[in-house]
Amino acid sequence: MEHREISAPRAGKFNVHIEGDLKHKHFIILTVHDLGCNHTMWKSFLQHPSMAEINKRAAYIHVDIPGQEDNAPDLPADYNFPSMQSLGEDLVCILDQLDIKQVVGIGEGAGANIVARFAMAQPTRVLGVCLIHCTGTTAGIMEGLKDKLIGWKLEHLGMNPTAEAYLMMHRFGSFEKAKDQEELNKAINSFQQSLRKNINAQNLKRFVKSFMKRTNIAEQTGKMKCPVLLVTGALASFNHTVHTLAGFMLAKMEKNKVEIIEVEGVANVLEENPDRLAEAFLYFCQGLGVIGGVPMPRMTRANSAENPEILTRRTRSLSMEEADKPLGIYSSSPGRVGSPIKPGTSPGKGTLSTSPPS
Asked: Which InterPro entries does the entry mention (predicted)?
């Protein structure tokens, strides 16, 4: 990867890692990472075989939030760590300085919140966004108390068991119920080692504090003009907030631009089921028109009798009252073509629930 430092008015500078030829690829994907991570969190996902067709056509701009790169020095004491809104708005500086007109955005957790803010602030610069475990509301009382405790411990004790446990729950949710414990344990061990060896605890505290003070973006989603793919694991810590955000988007945006998938039996879709995420993202990119003529792995049309693991489409709009409830999603379980699931319930075991873009 090519490393660049990009200046921005409030962030100061972003460390940016460019993967691929920005001038000659079909389209460009901009990534933003979660708490306790940096651009390296995307490595295994992008190397997954299901991402091969996208990698042939796309270049990547990986953004590190200030102070979150591996072995980063302490941020200056007088550095005013930017708010989530400022981080989102400052991302356009990266596009301007790299002479990029438009990107497809993808982010996880806190990074997804930042990407969403970017898409709302710069609607003409974003073709579409994939938001993994994205929160749209402010931190609740209990979340705020936990964040304050973690912030204090990171400041006074550095990386410690309590802070580590919190970040583990933030990223992996109810991991004790995961379907593939072996793969999940590998991901957890890798994350733990990165936290202990690579991530600056003082800088991470400042990122956590910014995330804790995030403002509500759910009410502002009408500003988002591009298609949105929301992704959540059924066991994710922020599963409910993802559904809540989807409800607001369906009420305030063009409904055919909002899609959601929930992957059963996992908390961290990126780590535990990358093939499903890659397939959904490939389908999403096809809907954006940046990829064409690619055979879809595993996914088929709804009238196919050959593969029961099919895609289905929402067939009705939601009222404002319904939109405030967790989104009713469609399941493609074997033997149940397009069977609707009531809001608040989960799809059948081992299924992928989604409704494709128009």
From this structure: AB_hydrolase_fold, NDRG
